[in-house]
Amino acid sequence: MTARPDGTGDLPDDDDHEPADDLAERWNEIIAELGDLDLDTPEPAAPVEAADPAGAAGPSVTYPVAPWVQGRSPEEGRLDLSGRDWDGTDQIDAAEAEMDERDHFIPPDPGPIFGGDPLLTMAWLGVAGIPIALVIIIIAWRTAPSLLLQVGGVVFALCFLVLVWRMPHHRDESDDDPGAVV
């Protein structure tokens, strides 16, 4: 239980509250002190009936419309659209077709995927694939012959040696780039 501000810590008595009649009387006094708040406010404008864009089935406009706003009925047709107001489909398709006609870019045919040296391709497959295959064999086939694991190790070593052997041995004479400079 929280203590009262006066420090007594007692629960408030019902006698502490004013009766409802006293509250209503006090409220009326406060309202009377405010005085007349009616300022010179203009009368609300009468509803203006404008052309209904939704057609006869839609609700009529019952709010005031500015004099420069022009309503259009479905019989008058659509407004001419330009710039950002394109209706989308037909005009955008026509613009894309026009750009395609002006653009003469033809993408080159992609080269072959394994278009490099076949020996290097096989060496990379061996260096990357043999360790993965050996791990799978060790996990899945516990009674695998040791000769299979030894052959896999030798093939991996040979593939690695082919990659080292095919590395460039010297710098190209026309290459004057010193490499990474910090």
Write the topology of this structure.
Blueprint: H1 20-34, H2 89-102, H3 118-140, H4 146-165
Description:
Helix content is 40%, strand content 0%. The chain has helices spanning 20-34, 89-102, 118-140, 146-165. Helix 3 packs antiparallel against helix 4. It has a domain at 118-165.
User: Could you state the order of secondary-structure elements as H and E?
Assistant: HHHH
Would you count the extended β strands for me?
0
- Rounded to an integer in angstroms, the radius of gyration calculated over CA atoms is 45 Å
Mean pLDDT: 75
Helical residues, percent:
25-40%
Structural descriptors:
single chain, 182 residues, mainly alpha, 4 helices
Compact summary:
This protein has 182 residues and is mainly alpha-helical.
